[in-house]
Amino acid sequence: MSIIINHLNYIYDEDTAMAHPALIDVNLKIPDGQFIGLIGHTGSGKSTLIQHMNGLIKPSSGNVFFDNEDINEQGYDKKKLRSNVGLVFQYPEHQLFETDCFKDVCFGPKNLGLPQKEVELRAFEALEQVGFDATYFYQSPFDLSGGQKRRVAIAGVLAMKPRVLILDEPTAGLDPKGREDILNLISDLHKKMNITIILVSHSMEDVADYVERIIVMNKGRVAFDAEPRDVFSHVKELEEIGLAAPQVTYCMQELREAGFDVDTGITTLEEAKKEILKAFGKC
Fold it and tell me: Could you give the count of Cα atoms lying within 13 Å of 61 in the half-sphere of its Cβ?
């Protein structure tokens, strides 16, 4: 078991008049190799939750375990944790600071105290894994497009060879083609490297085609935790907390209401195509 979250609570501005809970009694098990979508509207607690997994925030109460060790115990090696649980922030500019892309990706493994040759090999490998064009290796990361910056930020974390990769809103601000490219990249990394992926988003569309499990946060609590089909069956409840099922799910429901014998639990375009062809074949 990779990550266990046990009765986790976190209060912002604790012991002040401004105190308010951000996480309330959160209990989760994140097994090795799973692809998870962590969904919630702004202020739901999802970003606070992932910062606990990476050890950037200490709980007000409760525990976070990685490989059966409490990461907040005195003396726990946080550097080792962050090499195993990599976090890519929503805005890549928050992670990019070196004069060129290659140096930026070298920063993480260099901090691990690895020999320079190993550092550079890891950087080359990580940039290749994210499909980053070699002609931009020695260009300033701040001259890149939004999609390219995200690839460099992801490569910087991959160079640490993490077992868990957490991505906070990786498609924010990208055009539809850029969003699709980044999501396909993340999916490919999961398939090829068999690492745990936690994809944080406020968009059901971003996760429906990719993840095998969805965790929905609402007001600091876990509202749903199940396979996509089960979560998207609660359309009304999702709408009440400011979310929505994928458009394809609504489409299938409308077809059913129009008299077509289709499965309303469909969540992906490929599934919908097969179901619609089957339904019209019956007609």
Answer: 6
Rounded to the nearest 10 degrees, how much is the dihedral formed by the CA atoms of 238, 239, 240, 242? 90
pTM across the whole model: 0.90
Report helix, strand or coil for 135: helix
DSSP state of 73: S
Contact, 3 vs 30, CB < 8 A? Answer: yes
Mean pLDDT computed over 3-25: 93
Question: Where do the domains of the chain lie?
Answer: 1-67+163-231, 85-161, 246-283
Question: Does position 260 have pLDDT exceeding 80, yes or no?
Answer: yes
Instruction: Work out the percent of the chain whose per-residue pLDDT is above 70.
Output: 99
Query: Could you tell me what percentage of the chain is helix, strand and coil, using 3-state DSSP and rounding each to the nearest 5?
Result: 45, 20, 35
Q: Which residues contact 276 (CB under 8 A, 6 or more apart)?
A: 255, 260, 262
Look at residues 184, 191, 3 and name the one whose alpha carbon lies nearest to residue 86: 3
| CATH number, domain 1-67+163-231, options 3.30.70.1350, 3.40.50.300, 3.90.660.20, 3.40.1010.10 | 3.40.50.300
CB-based contacts of 53-57 (< 8 A; 24+ apart in sequence): 53/3, 53/5, 53/85, 53/87, 53/164, 53/166, 53/198, 54/81, 54/82, 54/85, 54/86, 54/87, 54/166, 55/81, 55/82, 55/85, 56/87, 57/10
Distance of alpha carbon 18 from alpha carbon 12, whole angstroms: 8
Which residue type occupies 156?
Answer: G
**What's the pLDDT at 146?**
87
